[in-house]
Sequence to fold (538 residues):
Amino acid sequence: MTTSTPTLQEKARRLRTLHDESRILVLVNAWDAASARAVAAVPGCHAIATASHSIAAAHGYEDGEQIPVELALAAIARIAAAVDLPVTADLEGGYGDVAATVRAAIRAGAVGGNIEDAMRPVDQAVRAVRAAVAAGRDEGVPFLLNARTDAYLTGPPETALAASVERGTAYLAAGADCVFVPGCSDPRDIRKLVAAFGPGRLSLLGMPALPAPAELQALGVARVSYGPYPQAVDAGCPHQQSRDAARCSARPAGQRRPPTSVTDGTHHRAMSPHRSYRREGTPAAMTFDLNTRDRSATASDTSLRQARNSAAFWTAVGHARGHTVIRRRGFLAVAGDERAGLRILVQEPDLGREELAELIDLAGRASGPIDAEDPFSATDLSNLDMHGRQMPIMLRAPGAVAEATMQVIPVRTEEDLRAAEQAVIAAFTLSRFEPYRAGEMFPAALIHQPGVDVFLARLDGEVAGACVTTVEGGYGSHYWVGTAPAYRSRGVGRAIMLGSLVSITGLPVTLTASRLGRPLYESLGFRVTATSTWWSSR
Fold:
C-alpha cells in the first residue's frame, strides 16, 4: 500500500490544526535536508521549522539577511522536499520584498513563516504583515504567519512588554496568526502577552530561562521553537559529541533533565539550561544540543575572555563607586545601593553548589535591581526571579581602523565625564539613574582606574555619544556604546567605535551586541563567536 504525498494545501491546513489544538507545538529548527530528516524521525514531531541563522552559517554567511535570498530559498526547498511534514520558514525581515519572498517560500514548499519587525516603525511593520498575508492568499495557500517582534531583544527591559503588546496586537489585527516574541521568558510577562493576544497566539524562543513546554502550554502559549541552537554534530567530531551526550540526559521534547543544583529551601531547580532532544536508540550524533552556539568548540575562548573583561570592567566601576566587590572562582559580584543594585558576572560555566547558594543569598539581600551576565549561557538564574535574554558575543581581530568622521576624545576632565555619563543614561534609557545625580553612574574616580577609558563624541560642538573601553589580559572590550537620542541615524555609533578603537587596534577586542548594534559591529570587522545570556530582575 502506498501513501500519497500531501499537497501544499493539506500541509498548510495541518499546520493550522497544530496551532489550534490545545497542545503546545514544539519545533526543533532545521537548516538542511539531513537535519530536517533527523528532526522528522523523532516520535511526536509534527512539523519542521527552519532557522535563518543556521542556514546562513551553513553557507558561510552571517545572519541578518547577509545570505543571498536565492540561497536561503533553495535551502528551504531542500528541507521541504526531504520531509512530508509541514514546513514553516524563517524569512527574516522579508529580504527587501516581503510579498515576493513569501510567494517564493511557498513555491519552495513552505506553508508558514516568520517575518520579523526589527523594531521598524509599527506602521511599516504592519504593512509587511499585510503583504505576507496577501501573498499567501494569492498563492492559494493558507500560509500561517508568525509575526515576530524584537522588543525583548533590542529595547529597554522596562518597555519590552508594552512594546510587544502594542506591536503584537497590531500584527494580529493585520492578519498574522501568531506573534513571535523571542527573548520573553518571565512567566508573568508570558501571562500578560497571552491575555493580550488570546490563547494559542503567542510563540516563544526556547532559551535557558524559558519554562518547560508543559508549563508554557498551561500558560496558553501556542508554540516554542529553538532557532539557531539545535545542531547535528559533525560526523568528524564523535569524541566531543560523546562527551556532550554523557554529560546531558536524553529525554523527549518537553521534559526537563533531573535537577542537579542546590536548593534554597523553597526552590529546587536545575541551574543549567542544557536541554537535549534525542530519540531513544538514536546515535549520539543525532542528539540536538540546544545549548550549542555557532562556534567551533563548546567552551569558547571568547566566552572566557568576555567573562574576564566584564569582571575587570565591573571591578573598576565598583571600586570607583565605592561598592562592595565579591570575587569567587565562578563569579564576581558588585553589590551597590538601591539604584545601582547588584551586578553578577559569571566567570566559569560550572558554578559550584556553594557558589550557587551564595548567589541566592546575595540576591535575597540585594537592595536594588539585579543584573547578571553569563557569557557561557550555562547558568539558569530564573529562580532568582530574573528573566534572561540572549545576545551575541563578538570578536574583532587586531587591525587598523578608518578615521572617525567627527570628534571623538578620551575623557580627561570631570566636565567631559559628566557629559559622557548623561549621554549613556539617555542612550540606554537607564531609568534607575533618574532623577540624574552627577557622578553616580560615572564617578570621577572611574577615569583613573587602570585599563579603563571613557570616550566622548561631539557633532557640531554638541555631545552626541559615548562609550567605555577596558583592556585586560591582552584583550580590549567595549561597553555602553551609546548615541544620544537626538543624534541617532547620523553615524555617531560608527564614529564613537572608530575613535575608541584607535588606541587598541593592536589587540583583539570583544563586546556583547544588541540586535540593532550588531550590523554596525560586523561592518567594523567584529564576528559572532559565542552567545551570552543577560539576566535582569523586575
In short: Residues 30 and 50 are 5 Å apart (CA to CA).
